Amino acid sequence: MSNNPPSRYLFFIVCISLAIVQMGYGGFAVAVKLCFTGEEQVDPILFTFLRNIISTPLLFLLAYLVEKPEKFIPDKEDWLPFLRLGLFANFFNQVFNTIGFKLAPAFNGSLIQQTIPATTTILAGILGLEMVSPKRFTGLCKIVGVILSLAGAILILLPKNDSNQPSKEGFELFLGNVFFIINASSYACSVFLQRPLLKKYPPIYVTAWTFCTGSSLLVLGFLGSLGSGDIMAPERWHIGSKVWMCLAYSVIVGSVLGFAVLSWANKNFGPVLTTSFTPLQPVMTAFLSTWFFDYHLSAMDYIAAALIFSGLFTVTGSKYIEGKQAASEKRDEVVRSDASIASEENQALISGCKSDIRTYS
């Protein structure tokens, strides 16, 4: 990758692509939820398994056509990093995400996704990759943003004031929201695990091998899930036309295009810009949920959304300020360096002139 900064044109294209992908993920949340409603329902592990098995060869084909990588198989020292990335980005992320959609509303999953920038900031501070100090204004903003986002996520976990809701459904809703939080945390971890590999390999190539290793783990999980209940039960293997349509949407939009664009953006502009368009996701999900599921937001949903969005904008805003400060300091350093070089050249020229004067005199 070149050391030159990305062009403004590339920045504009990446922003448009990220906006489209996040709106597509809003539709993806509804598509997955449709697989677990009505008469045509599918096993969550089977759905995730099929999604990855179909997506993997398509991603390899896309990587070959677009990037034409020099090697097909990664270096041996990168096999373990790819396995770790597949564990977090595919196995934990997608399994908990799919089961969460089965138990809780689609809007909850999209809203909890907005805690990813806050989770990323926490992990960056723990790993020492980013300064999160309350003594600095930007560091204090990050801490406040993280607290607001986590408060919103906790508010979603609280039981709704509905006396008619059975205790079983209330527990399933709570469990689904917990799975969404694990899903968001897993994705935040995968962003850091992906960065070293993106410095060495093209983004779609990295995504393809991530799905490949994640699919291998999902095969084990799927085979293990067959041990519970009747393996040959028709309801475990039934896939209706509605599920196939939702699965096709999940493969094309939620996996191949979505992950490829996110990896491409992460390689060129890093995790901050990559996750900054996530607020478009719950907006699209809320709109589609009212259409497909007649879902209406409660007052607690609005308060939780306000807290999470406030935390999101506070964290990303502080990172934007730090980026501008770093760029300004770099420009000043270049100017000082150029001035120092010019000063040394002037001194050398003056010394040379004095030497010539002494010689001719």
UniProtKB/TrEMBL annotation:
Transmembrane segments: 45-67, 79-99, 111-132, 139-158, 173-193, 205-227, 247-265, 272-293, 299-321
Residue span(s) of domain EamA: 20-157, 175-315
Keywords: Membrane, Transmembrane, Transmembrane helix
Source organism, top-level taxon: Eukaryota
Membrane topology: Multi-pass membrane protein
Protein name, entry field: EamA domain-containing protein
Subcellular location: Membrane
Organism from which the protein derives: Basidiobolus ranarum
